[in-house]
Specification:
By secondary structure, the protein is mainly α. Helices cover 85% and strands 0% of the residues. The chain is rod-shaped and about 115 Å long. 0% of the residues are buried.
Length: 130
C-alpha cells in the first residue's frame, strides 16, 4: 500500500488548502472520503467473492472425494454381499446333501430369497465370527 506518514498527510493538506481554498476544502474532503470508503467496500466485496469462490471449489473437491468414497464403500458392500451369498448357497447345499429329507434345508432354501441386505450383513458377521 501507499506509505503515508503524518508529515506527508500534512503536506498534502497544506497544498490542498492552497489550491482548493478554505471554502471548498471541507466539501472536497467529504467527497474524497466518500470515494475512498466506496473503494474500500468494493475491494472488500471483491475479496469476499474470491474467498467464496475458493471455498466453493474446495467444497466441490470434498464432495467429489466423499462421493468417490461412497462408491468405494458401496462396491465393497456389494462384493461382500455377493461373496456371502455364494458362501451361504454353498452352506445350504452342504446342509441339503447331509440331510436331504429334513425340513431344515428346505426352510433355508425357501427363505434365502427373502433376505434383505441388513439380514445378510448380520448373518455375514455371525458367519465370519464362527
Amino acid at each position: 500500500m501507499i506509505d503515508l506518514g503524518i508529515s506527508k498527510i500534512a503536506l498534502i493538506g497544506a497544498v490542498a488548502l492552497i489550491v482548493i481554498g478554505p471554502e471548498k476544502l471541507p466539501r472536497v474532503a467529504r467527497t474524497v472520503g466518500a470515494l475512498i470508503g466506496k473503494a474500500q467496500r468494493y475491494v472488500a466485496d471483491v475479496k469476499a467473492e474470491v474467498n467464496r469462490s475458493m471455498e466453493l471449489d474446495e467444497l466441490k473437491k470434498m464432495k467429489d472425494t466423499v462421493e468417490s468414497a461412497a462408491r468405494d464403500v458401496e462396491h465393497s458392500v456389494q462384493t461382500a454381499s455377493s461373496d456371502f451369498e455364494k458362501d451361504w448357497a454353498e452352506t445350504i447345499s452342504c446342509i441339503m446333501t447331509l440331510s436331504p429329507t429334513s425340513n431344515f434345508g428346505r426352510t433355508f432354501e425357501s427363505s434365502s430369497s427373502l433376505f434383505s441386505l441388513s439380514s445378510l450383513l448380520s448373518f455375514k458377521s455371525l458367519y465370519t465370527a464362527v
